[in-house]
Amino acid sequence: MIRPARTGDDARPPEPSERAASAVGMGAPAAAVDLTALVADREKWLAAHPDDDASWAVLGSAYLEQARRTAESGWYPKAEKALKRSLEIRPAEKGNFDAMTGMGALANARRDFGTGRKWGELVRAQAPKRWSAYPVLVDAYTGLGDYKGAQKAMELLLEIRPGLAAYVRASQVYRDRGWREDAVVSMEHAAGAAKTPAEKAYALFRLGELSWERGDAAEALRQYEGALRTDPAQAEALGGRARALAALGRGGEAVRDYRLALGRAAVPQLARELGELLDALGRPQEARAQYEALATMVARDSGNGVDDAVLLGLYEADHGDAAAAVRRLSQEWSRHKSVQVADALGWALHQSGEDTAALEYAKKAMEPGLRSADFAYHRAMIEQGLGDEEAARRHLQEALRTNPHFSPLRGPLAKQALASIAQLPPGGPENIRPTAPWVEPELPKAAKPTPTPTPSPKPTGR
């Protein structure tokens, strides 16, 4: 793809651009220096060979990986332009699968999961054994809240092409279903399948995330530091280390690491986390600066086609205009019925004083099985608002049992709320109310979202 095939006498190690091309083709993380080399290599080649559809697809996917590594959404329009150029030269109906899966991955990265699903399903219809369709489908189905579809696509991926991409998706699916041990084992398999430091570091970072979510801050710190030793440029792991340090009472070091991480990659979620840590440390002016930075980052992302509705809605619910959060997240729910959207919408409704409607979404968020301290805390506070203190007590206990360090702001509030709830006498049933079927509450009408480019050709059946 980058150079002619090697002869038997060519024992030289792969060039950086070749390593990155291999990683991009496998759907794996690539090292920053290798990516830079690949982008320069393909841009130079295409200046002289503008009708090379395969190289346009490689370049588009390399731009997409640059966006993932740097959190700079300005790479997305460049990726879209390159991938569309590839499809102009060799259309989808002629089997341009690399560009098609690239468009699906781009849509998922922008959190336009409906479009991601369309591209993935188009590839699958034309080439059911084409493994690269299935990571796109797992991510798209997950974002749409179709967890059974995600699991089925993941199982097919494992059957067709076991390896790093498959093990990462398996871990994701198991986590979303609440199967923590299976999620960890799958991510350990991903770490074992890694062929480069960048791949290994990514798997270690994800192991750190799994440890964090189950409340083991010390183990999470160990995994994040392992990722940083393996790939010092990884901003995600640096942000994770900051989170773990804050949980372990090392707030000054945590603030330092958050600032370093944001200097490497302007990730809106990290700005929110740093702002809330600074608030918890009694530094409100510095916290406000981070919230302003978050707004700037979200505006930048929006201009590049990225949907940050869940993050922005949660921020607005906690620190801004809860009614605006309800409107934003109602629109998001009309497009993406994932547990993250359900949780955020339920919380925004609670913050707007609409606890009856909020509870239905809080229940919906917890139905598939994801063990989240944030979800449990949100549900508990909604139940407390409705006067159901026994249910609130159970879910506060669940939140603190899942991860007692889940938030420097909300964690202490959860402990205070639990202490304030009177303990019921033992011996009676914990919940005597019958379970009613879930009925979606009526919400403000969603504005029609701006469409994202979608695949137009129909499957050929080939």
TrEMBL record:
Bias (Basic and acidic residues): 1-18
Family matches, as Pfam families: TPR_8
Biological processes per GO annotation: negative regulation of DNA-templated transcription
Region annotation (Disordered) ranges: 1-26, 423-462
Keywords: TPR repeat
TPR repeats: 201-234
Domain of life: Bacteria
Database matches in PANTHER family: SUPPRESSOR OF RPS4-RLD 1, TETRATRICOPEPTIDE-LIKE HELICAL DOMAIN-CONTAINING PROTEIN
Name this protein carries in UniProt: Tetratricopeptide repeat protein
